[in-house]
Amino acid sequence: MERDVRGIVFDLRKYSVHDGPGIRTTVFLKGCPLSCLWCHNPESQSFWPELLHRPSACIGCGACIAACPEKALAPSPDGGVVLDRKRCILCGACCRACVADALEMAGKSLSVAEVMATVREDVLFYDQSGGGVTFSGGEPLSQPVFLAALLRACRGEEISTAVDTSGYAPSETLLAVAELADLFLYDLKHMDSRRHEEVAGVPNELILENARLLSERNVPLWIRIPLIPGINDDEKNLCDTGAFVATLQSVRKVSLLPYHPSGRDKYRKIGRAYALSSLTTPSSEEMERAVELLSRSGLSVMIGG
Ligand code: SF4
Ligand code: SF4
């Protein structure tokens, strides 16, 4: 039964107003083939569950140490615990033992029926606001069977859907999903393929080709461009991005999203270094300049959302 199809979900966020029109529930699917340096959901990148450790919340009770079957946790000199990730087998026993939410597992296996039970709770809000459900990630197209089953379930219940994607997926997968979704939120990060690979881990030819294919089929697109200082905010890249977007016929909205270091703390929680630690949010003048450069091809560009 399709309602029993399972996937790995790392978050389910209700009352979202930034992931498409109206009030939405956003379902975050875990796993992404990209590795953007500025990713604010680093726990979304791995296809497997990960243990998040938040020492600032720890009350030093030691319950996790007693619960761990692998001796991966030990007392730390500051009264908390240290985690040896090499020993950890991701069993989750410490998360269940921790009353302070200092240890948490990112990513769990959910069925279509389980996701839909949460999604269904807010149908009234979707109907009143013109909202619905957004499938985000990670890269939702990396779990195509689960994603397609979720989209079919939403369609069966007349719930509007959006897919928030990097566009980096086999074209057949993308086009099959496009038959089931009402809207694509489509990210464009850099127009130069070599630079795209340096900062996001993969080249961009497939992403640009997939955007063209969606446009040719008149699939509604909201283009989202993150503005990352020193990475994609130069004049040439912004003019090239605007010129490319202007060739797409099915674009309903173009948004410029300012870089924000909000994900920095999450890198610490999963034991990874953050590569952009000195970067700050672009000023309003820098945002306006970027809008002007993107708009030179005749686009109407909004900041945020
Ligand atoms: S997830 Fe399991 S193995 Fe890993 S630290 Fe927690 S209890 Fe130990
Ligand atoms: S169970 Fe939680 S609060 Fe207690 S020592 Fe472990 S991490 Fe800290």
Keywords:
305 residues, alpha/beta, TIM Barrel, Alpha-Beta Plaits, 2 domains, two-stranded antiparallel ribbon, binds iron/sulfur cluster
Compact overview of the structure:
This protein has 305 residues and is α/β, with parallel strands linked by helices.
Could you please describe the fold and organization of this structure?
- With 305 residues, this protein is an alpha/beta fold.
- It folds into two domains: 2-47 and 107-303, Aldolase class I (TIM Barrel), CATH 3.20.20.70; 50-106, Alpha-Beta Plaits (2-Layer Sandwich).
- It has helices spanning 63-67, 93-97, 112-120, 123-129, 144-156, 171-178, 193-200, 205-216, 235-246, 264-269, 284-295, and strands at residues 6-16, 24-29, 50-53, 73-75, 81-83, 103-106, 108-111, 132-136, 161-165, 183-187, 221-227, 251-258, 301-303.
- The strands form three sheets. Strands 7-1-2-8-9-10-11-12-13 form a nine-stranded mixed β-sheet. Strands 3-6 form a two-stranded antiparallel ribbon.
- Helix 6 packs parallel to helix 8 (205-216) and helix 9 (235-246) packs across helix 11 (284-295).
- It starts with 5 loop residues before the first strand and ends with a strand.
- The model has no long low-confidence stretch (mean pLDDT 96).
- Bound molecules: iron/sulfur cluster (2 copies).
- One iron/sulfur cluster binds next to helix 1.
